[in-house]
Amino acid sequence: MTELQKLDNLYVANTYARFPVDLVSGSGSLYYDENGKEYIDMGTGIGVTAFGACDTEWKNAVIGQLNALSHTSNLYYTKPCANLAKLLCEKTGLKKVFFANSGAEANECAIKVARKYFEDKTGKQGYIITLTSSFHGRTLTTLSATGQDKFHELFNPLTGGFLHADVGDTLAIENYVKSYPVCGIMIELVQGEGGVNALPNDYVKWVYEFCNKNDILLIVDEVQTGNGRTGKLYAFEHFNILPDVVTTAKGLGGGLPIGACMIGEKAQNVLTFGTHGSTYGGNPVCSAGAISVISRLTPEFLSEVSKKGEYIKNELLTCNGAQSVTGLGLMLGIKTKKPVKEVVDYCIKNGVLVLTAKDKLRLLPPLNIPNNLLEKAVKIIKDAIN
Ligand SMILES: Cc1ncc(COP(=O)(O)O)c(C=O)c1O
């Protein structure tokens, strides 16, 4: 164990199973440890550094803003915050944005929007349906929303008001709505932490139409799928729907903490003065970084993301050791015949940083990873799998 690992283990709360790698620098799709060993990044800090490590354009936007104004609180107006909100609304068709600092906080906001929308309309307290094998965050309320029992154990009592339905089980949703005052249905279109599984198209269409018909808010959690990750700006575009609320974080900030809860026409006026807030929300430096990310996610760029995703999928599908490849764009999950830990250890030893999701290998490479590095990484991953 290195001195750094000993220090970290001694003083940092032991909530993460870190890989035994001490990273000291990064540039684009490459990271380096303290011995100068190079790693190709196929994980982007769990879907965060959309344009790679220390990306020049992002860095210039962030440093430029840091030199001008670093923080003001939400008591004053700043351009980056307003401009980022405009950009997101214009690109998505949603109407208002609340800025938070993480995915979980963006989801907290969405849950509050759904509850208040229902209170305003009916005077009643509303329930939210989420899906089993979903993941919505680690705060107590988003943990309660998360449809996986293993996250709930040891943290009871949970926040009330959540109901869980299996993916594809439309009857469960209908029955819940008959028995409970339901104000929202919250889904990930590709369940990330749950194993990188896209929801079936016809099921998403059914949920969308069911929500519209019953005036239930459809909340789509795009914390992981958003910001170009799946080859569309937001994954809802793959399904030809416009949700009532979309949350995002991770890739949005490109490496700085920012989350966004984007609210559509129906609920755009639900959040009113004093009903929600965040000291750092919409911080000018994080917003400047996010503008640099979002403004580069053009249709041409996103079609390259899809092509890179197809390349990985096709290559890995030729592996005897790969049982399945799931996901969309550059958000991929691979079920391997070997235990996934062996695959990950081999990759790291051979200079490729990868992730897992449940018992699958998970890949979330930089959206702009150069083809030569992608080919090199895929070769090592194929060797690892076989
Ligand atoms: C779909 C989804 N929602 C919410 C979260 C929580 O985001 P954060 O860790 O930024 O709070 C995650 C994190 O992995 C996620 O994948």
Describe this structure in words.
The protein is of the alpha/beta class. It has 2 domains: 3-55 and 299-385, Aspartate Aminotransferase, domain 1; 69-294, Aspartate Aminotransferase, domain 2, CATH 3.40.640. The chain contains 13 helices and 17 strands. The protein has helices at 3-11, 44-47, 56-68, 79-92, 103-122, 140-145, 149-152, 170-179, 201-214, 284-294, 299-317, 340-349, 371-385; strands spanning 23-27, 30-33, 38-41, 96-100, 127-131, 162-165, 182-187, 190-191, 197-198, 217-221, 245-248, 259-263, 322-328, 331-336, 352-353, 355-357, 360-363. Strands 4-12-11-10-7-5-6 form a 7-stranded mixed beta sheet, sandwiched between helices. A 4-stranded mixed beta sheet has the order 1-2-3-15. A 4-stranded antiparallel beta sheet has the order 13-14-17-16, with helices on one face. A hairpin with a 2-residue loop joins strand 1 and strand 2. Helix 3 packs antiparallel against helix 10 (284-294) and helix 4 packs parallel to helix 10. The model has no long low-confidence stretch (mean pLDDT 98). Pyridoxal-5'-phosphate binds at residues 102-104, 107, 135-137, 188, 192-193, 221, 223-224, 249.
